[in-house]
Amino acid sequence: MTQTNKNNIVIIGAGPAGLVSAIAFARRGISTTVIEKLEHPESALRFDPNRSYTIDITGHGLKALRYIDACEQFEQHMIPFKGIRIYGSNFIDRWNDDGWTGSRGDILRTLMNLVEEHYTDDIQCEFETEVVSVDVHAGIVTTCKQGIHQTRQFDFIIGADGGGSVVRQAMVDQIPEFTTTYSEIPNYATMLELDQNTDELDPSYLYVMSTNPFCVAGAINGESGKDKMRWFCAVGSNHEVHYSAVIEARRHFQKSAPNLLRFVSDTSLIKFTQLKCYHIGRQVTCSQLYGGKAVLLGDAAAPFSPIGQGINAAMESAMIFDQCYDGTTPEALESTVQRYNQRWLPEAKAIAWISERMVYNKTSHILRMKIAQLFGINILSNAKKTDIDYTQVKKQADRLPILWAW
Ligand SMILES: Cc1cc2nc3c(=O)[nH]c(=O)nc-3n(C[C@H](O)[C@H](O)[C@H](O)COP(=O)(O)OP(=O)(O)OC[C@H]3O[C@@H](n4cnc5c(N)ncnc54)[C@H](O)[C@@H]3O)c2cc1C
Predict the structure, then answer these.
(1) Are 54 and 217 a contacting pair, CB within 8 Å?
(2) Are 32 and 22 in contact (CB under 8 A)?
(3) Ligand 1 contact via 162 beta carbon (within 6 Å)
(4) Atom of ligand 1 nearest to the CA of 16
(5) For residue 234, what pLDDT is reported?
(6) What angle do CA 348, 353, 357 make, to 5 degrees?
(7) Where are the alpha helices (DSSP H) in 257-378?
């Protein structure tokens, strides 16, 4: 039997996009149910060795956090971000506004903190509950928790369920005009923990340790927060890399990124050789970001290869959606999703365009970023800025089309 839910808006996924959206609704006094397949971030494994990369929250994410009044929480719980350094040189790309770094888990814990301190009346979170199917026309969501299935009906479904979104798949299956285009770039990453001499590094900076292999290191909170940080480095490659032995990995870094070895013990190198090298260069472009009674936010709407914008863009999409919100009647929801689509779809396409122009370890791409920097159109650093949209970043870059044609 299908139950009609007390909260008539469901948000699927308690990632950054889903939680920012839930908080924005709560600030309007509107209740939502948030369904998340994983456990509460406080009880989850603190360090997922594959997802402990350091994320900087800058321009686009900052706008979203200001919008939901979350900056104080981030100041309290996360590491302040001051910019990017190239290790071994004097180069510093300073960040002069508010900003923070940490892992995706640190970000989720901070957002959940805010939820639990202020919004428990309006946000009902259901962790360890997986959405297994969605009927986007009827608003029906079927979940599975500990093997028990439940079917519920909602007035509106917000798909914030990440790159493999079930809501997006339901739209593909159920809405003829909803189509998706998949593309891939050869970007891969393996995580490496820096576990020695890290007191020589300043946790408020991300460090480019090498450009080939593309290695960016940064700090995240430790078990007890900011006082015992841990350092991780994403080692990027343009093909899947496996090292059969530590000696092989050590030899590779000695040749191509010797700086890194100062910070890495043998134990950490052993772990590195055992970790999976992930293909992270998958992109999906949707023909529209809504269908039936559902809408897509964050990676569910537009997953793209990491260029330091995934969480920032995910939180911004939730902010834009809230700014378009018009009311809960069917007509108001229709105009909300139309306006959101008009605002966010071009942004999502611009981010995809930007990320496709950065294939790790491709010498020509690294060279062109340096040339672009000279002309003030470095798409990676401009994408971080608070005051320009992703579409504007692309438009400025298009002034030198020859630079981006390869
Ligand atoms: C190697 C790597 C490096 C990255 N580096 C950066 C970076 O430096 N900066 C940056 O901003 N971003 C980075 N990202 C990207 C970033 O992690 C994502 O873009 C971001 O987390 C997207 O947020 P989201 O809320 O849209 O989705 P997600 O964070 O994926 O959250 C979706 C949530 O939905 C849940 N869910 C999924 N399916 C279901 C279901 N069926 N039922 C219930 N719940 C479900 C998931 O468990 C998850 O909690 C990186 C990603 C990778 C892989």
Answers:
(1) yes
(2) yes
(3) yes
(4) 25
(5) 95
(6) 145
(7) 258-261, 266-274, 298-301, 310-324, 330-356, 363-374
